[in-house]
Amino acid sequence: MTTKNTSGRGQRELRVKVKTARGRKLSSTRWLERQLNDPYVAAARRDGYRGRAAYKLLELDDKYRFLVPGARVVDLGCAPGGWLQVAVARVNALGEKQGKRVGTVLGVDLQEVEPLAGAEAHVLDFLEEGAEEQVKVWLGGPADVVMSDMAAASSGHKQTDHLRIMALCEAAAYFAFDVLEEGGTFVAKVLAGGAEGELQQLLKKNFKKVANVKPPASRSDSSEKYVVAQGFRGRSSSDASDEPV
Ligand SMILES: C[S@@+](CC[C@H](N)C(=O)[O-])C[C@H]1O[C@@H](n2cnc3c(N)ncnc32)[C@H](O)[C@@H]1O
């Protein structure tokens, strides 16, 4: 591994260069190099977050302010738990902010999540038959925020990945229509690629405001972005009977 000054202006911005080692694939070398040079990876280590994804939620919430003390949050696709950490702190799930309302944070993922104080996390395939009913049982009432950072492992085929993530996003949206309190917020990761139009229409019918955002922490070479839908209109106007997008 070598370091090199890449700024060309005499500033101390050192870029780590990783040599291809015998037995390591070029793609792994590139991944390692990207990790070592990613300021968000370094910041997550410094700030004690479980992953760089935490900064995407921090940036979205700094802009749209949906994680308020007292909020009841559901985090779909929560492993390893960066978003859970952010939500626990911002909704005051541990009651550390004196005089502020205490919120709750519930997460589910295909993978086990290391226990986190203030959050309840369960292993669950959200696309499985009966999954939504199970989450509703754990939730035990309405939610103020439903957020999904769910993403299936990349297939290497852009259109397939796009359709998979849109299916996850659509399932999360219908779940949100079912559990959100009026005025609630839905946040979800989408991948650019063609099927977002119908989802946008569905969200616009059900929420007062729908924004499409690429937070600075989202890698510029990724086609991921987030929808932030706020002001849920309530179940009477919810279009759950619409054909799936
Ligand atoms: C990008 S990661 C989420 C990172 C998380 N927001 C954080 O801050 O740690 C995407 C997650 O979605 C989960 N996932 C993908 N498909 C899922 C499904 N059908 N049900 C539940 N979780 C799923 C994956 O297991 C993975 O942990």
Strand-helix topology:
Layout: E1 2-5, E2 14-17, H1 26-37, H2 39-47, H3 53-64, E3 72-76, H4 82-90, E4 104-109, E5 119-123, H5 131-139, E6 143-148, H6 158-179, E7 180-191, H7 196-206, E8 207-213, E9 224-232
Parallel strand pairs: 3-4, 3-6, 4-5, 6-7
Antiparallel strand pairs: 1-2, 7-9, 8-9
Helix pairs in contact: 3-4, 6-7
This protein binds S-adenosylmethionine (SAM).
Please provide a brief summary of the model.
By secondary structure, the protein is α/β, with parallel strands linked by helices. It is 34% helix and 24% strand. Helix 4 (82-90) links the parallel strand 3 (72-76) and strand 4.
Q: Explain this structure to me?
A:
This protein has helices at residues 26-37, 39-47, 53-64, 82-90, 131-139, 158-179, 196-206, and strands at residues 2-5, 14-17, 72-76, 104-109, 119-123, 143-148, 180-191, 207-213, 224-232. Helix 3 (53-64) packs parallel to helix 4 (82-90) and helix 6 packs parallel to helix 7 (196-206). It is globular. The longest helix has 22 residues, at 158-179. Strands 5-4-3-6-7-9-8 form a seven-stranded mixed sheet, with helices on both faces. A two-stranded antiparallel sheet has the order 1-2. It contains seven helices and nine strands; from the N terminus they run ββαααβαββαβαβαββ. It has two domains: 2-37, no CATH class; 51-239, Rossmann fold (3-Layer(aba) Sandwich). By secondary structure, it is α/β, with parallel strands linked by helices. It starts with a strand and ends in a 13-residue tail after the last strand. S-adenosylmethionine is lined by residues 50-51, 53-54, 77-83, 108-111, 125-127, 149-152, 168.
